[in-house]
Amino acid sequence: MSDRQGYVRLARRVSLRLLEEPYLYDRWGDELYELNQDALEGLKRCRGHLTLEQAGLDPEFAAYCLEEGLLELSESPWPMPLALGPSPSPSLRYLELQITWRCNLACAHCYLGPAAKIDLPVEQIAALLREFEAMGGLRVMLSGGEPLMHPWWDEINALLAALPVRRVLLSNGLLLGVKMLERLNCDEVQISLDGLEPGHERLRGKGSFGKAVAAARAVKASGRDLSIATMVHAGNLDQFGELDRLVRSLGAMEWGIDAPSLSGRLAANPELAVSPEQAASAMAHAYGGAYHGGGGGMACGQHLATVAADGKVAQCGFYLDDPLGWAEEGLWTCWERRRPLAISELRGCSKCEAAMDCGGGCRFRAGDPLGPDPVMCAAYGITPKETT
Ligand code: SF4
Ligand code: SF4
Predict the structure, then answer these.
(1) pLDDT beyond 90 at 81
(2) In this structure, is residue 200 part of a structural domain?
(3) Among 62, 195, 257, 272, which residue's CB has the most CB atoms within a 10 Å radius?
């Protein structure tokens, strides 16, 4: 069988998305390929009912897609449905689901405050996932609390099995044994690692470091993507050189480093706070993608929403006191209430020479919602008052 006589369809790991532009999304590689109208129309015909020749794709483009594993061929028809609806504007690409506020740790910096036996019901999670997929969502992040503490975790895990978006588990690693990983329906696991042993355990308690590192190794061994999340604090500032070596040796595809905001439990532990300069210096070690960012002249969180365990929908986890609405109203309804912020509206940032790269930093950390983010100003060597 020559390639052109094979029946062609999109590989299971990819799907079409109508966001601000048409895209092909590869959820394994977490990669968006922007499409022109011809490519979009051609790929819409790749549903397993036509041969490559009949689908009429540009031969060079088709060869590229086959080589990259974005298209698959079969000797006989293997029809698949095409679900391709419109997305809101701006598109909702990233959804954090805080499925439970239960936790098996009591971290000194947790922005949620005390753990609580509050869980998103499984039926509500199912409805949110359906709506997120229909809105063109790319990546769902299951967080908490500790998401594996949800009493109906197995049912939630089953919902993830056939979900055509990238599925990311955000975990402290304590419950991530080999058996849990064997049945986990996630593409990526993010483990929290808040320093080397002394720094990590200063926040998370004795014995937690070894378990987190073991979980990170087990994630890699299971063949899933690993990412690491680290909070900068006064007890780990001296550890970033060594931690950098550890994170890279673990094979993490992404290292997200954040500076704490004085909320949740951290408000009761102010001695953990760091200066903007200290935070910026540690954050320079971070690498890999980010889903908080803005882009196109807009401030952070342009494509992100969070649903909390009590059903509140907010622009991110820091805005649960000022929610957009409730999950039962529907994601689209809540998302439409969000007012995107342009960088030109930010008093401290609109004239800043670093604004296009920085994007105005984190709006919550800025304190004043229209003011500069001191950590990012330190990172870019900007004196905030110069820009007001
Ligand atoms: S306010 Fe901060 S935490 Fe929230 S989306 Fe923006 S960068 Fe992320
Ligand atoms: S460096 Fe500071 S002033 Fe400039 S855009 Fe970023 S947060 Fe705003």
Answers:
(1) no
(2) yes
(3) 195
